[in-house]
Q: What sequence folds into this?
């Protein structure tokens, strides 16, 4: 089994799509480690605010099999793939890391560059895996977050429940 981290985001029917994604990922991968859910402004385009979070899990799937399953979950949630890269999303699920793999596999570059570029990826990742090492930089996520320019992107945790339990609270 390989440890993986995935980022989830939605700015269209956000609550509905994040819940559906968590249920589908739980069915696909089993036990999930789930970060708080954060709200943030859209990056790269003028649009509604996003809900973002990171989940950790273990998988026996290859990178290609995992990617195929994640695309199916996105498509099942109304994801449109013919629009511009920076546009509203019903659901976006990205593989952030796949074990210690560094490189390109099945067209996917890992670890994903967004880890160190976007607060809405790095903060929830540092929350659920503070001492885990970035596969390429070999630095703990909590350290990367401490060094991040936290004023550059605003985000805030929101009240969110999944499977009858609070996974985050508004701060």
A:
């Amino acid at each position: 089994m390989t440890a993986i981290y995935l980022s989830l985001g939605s700015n269209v029917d956000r609550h509905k799509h994040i819940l559906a994604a968590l249920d589908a990922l739980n069915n696909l991968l089993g036990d999930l480690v789930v970060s708080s859910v954060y709200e943030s402004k859209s990056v790269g385009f003028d649009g509604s605010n996003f809900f973002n979070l990171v989940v950790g899990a273990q998988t026996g799937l290859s990178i290609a099999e995992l990617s195929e399953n994640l695309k199916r979950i996105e498509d099942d949630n109304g994801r449109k793939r013919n629009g511009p890269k920076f546009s509203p999303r019903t659901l976006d699920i990205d593989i952030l890391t796949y074990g210690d793999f560094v490189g390109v596999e099945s067209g996917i570059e890992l670890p994903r560059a967004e880890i160190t570029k976007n607060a809405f990826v790095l903060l929830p990742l540092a929350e659920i895996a503070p001492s885990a090492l970035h596969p390429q930089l070999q630095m703990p996520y909590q350290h990367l977050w401490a060094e991040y320019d936290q004023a550059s992107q605003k985000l805030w945790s929101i009240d969110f429940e999944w499977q009858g339990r609070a996974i985050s609270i508004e701060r």
Summary: The mean pLDDT is 91. Residues 102 and 110 are 5 Å apart (CA to CA).
